[in-house]
Design brief:
Elements lengths: L8 H6 L6 E3 L2 H11 L4 E6 L4 E5 L4 H4 L5 E11 L8 E6 L13 H9 L14 E4 L6 E4 L23
Antiparallel strand pairs: 1-3, 2-3, 2-4, 4-5, 6-7
The structure holds zinc ion.
Length: about 170
Amino acid sequence: MGYRYVGDASIAAAAGTGPGRALRSPAQFREWATDNAAEPCTYVVAADGVLLVAPRHTEHVACASGREVLAAGEITFAADDPGGDGDWRVEEVSNQSTGYCPEPSCWPVVAAAVERLGVRHPGGFTAAFEFRRCGECGSLSVVKENDFTCAVCESPLPAEWNLADR
Ligand SMILES: [Zn+2]
């Protein structure tokens, strides 16, 4: 399934820094990574399964050109042999995107997008987030330590992902 942007419309309208760079092959990854991969990046996986990356702090909605995504979050790459021709790996990867609020279960599409670049990965998110919208006050909450309580109004949050419900 795809995730639609659920964040603030004013952010989407102002997000002029995208789109992300599409990485479709090991060659494209290496060309990009040589100059850009030292820092954590914003990423989305587009509907066609392609990884799009953008400088950190780029809004996910800009990285995705406002489109639906299969996954979104932050990713950090590292080289086994910095500056050389060695292999690359994913050092850290999360589903942290308050614009798309993807579920942790989107990991397989991230894994597939990275594998097609010839990049190793840790086999799962190194940091996984659960997002819920509060049914009482409408706030977006990030569930911390399995505490399904709204941080704003302290109402109980639903057990199931509900960001598509609006
Ligand atoms: Zn609330």
